[in-house]
Specification:
The chain is α+β, with helices and mostly antiparallel strands and 138 residues long. 36% of the residues lie in helices and 17% in strands.
Length: 138
């Protein structure tokens, strides 16, 4: 004798499968948020600066931003060179948390209140800095 499936259970399973597929598709297509990227970058504060690296133990300036954008699912193809960020994202006059800030000699991520997080060669580590103390953004 065939068993009957409770319609409520069937509906619940259908919704659960649909939601899990939607979440999976969002994660694969760059569904992360700028806030997630800031969190990923801030989680690296205190780690050493090493030129040409993008984590998880050491970071260059572009490597930190690349790591944060990729880890958060914002951009799986985030650039390696700081100059490449100029053409990769729209230019803005007032940065918001998660925006990439490009300087003549490096790149950082805006975290809010005039502060950026970056892997700083001069200090030898990832840290937070007043935006204007790094220089004039390009």
């Amino acid at each position: 004798m065939p068993r009957r499936i409770n319609p409520v259970v069937l509906l619940g399973l259908t919704i659960a499968i649909a939601l899990s597929l939607a979440l999976s598709a969002g994660a694969q297509s760059g569904g992360g948020s700028p806030g997630d990227a800031v969190g990923a970058a801030m989680g690296q504060v205190g780690k050493p600066y090493v030129f040409g690296t993008d984590g998880p133990d050491t970071f260059s300036c572009a490597g930190l931003v690349r790591f944060a954008l990729r880890s958060a699912g914002v951009d799986e193809n985030a650039p390696w060179g700081h100059g490449e960020y100029l053409g990769a994202y729209p230019n803005v006059s007032s940065p918001k948390p998660g925006d990439v800030v490009v300087y003549p000699n490096g790149v950082a991520m805006y975290v809010g209140d005039g502060t950026v997080v970056m892997a700083n060669e001069a200090d030898g580590l990832v840290g937070t800095y007043p935006m204007e103390s790094i220089g004039t953004p390009m």
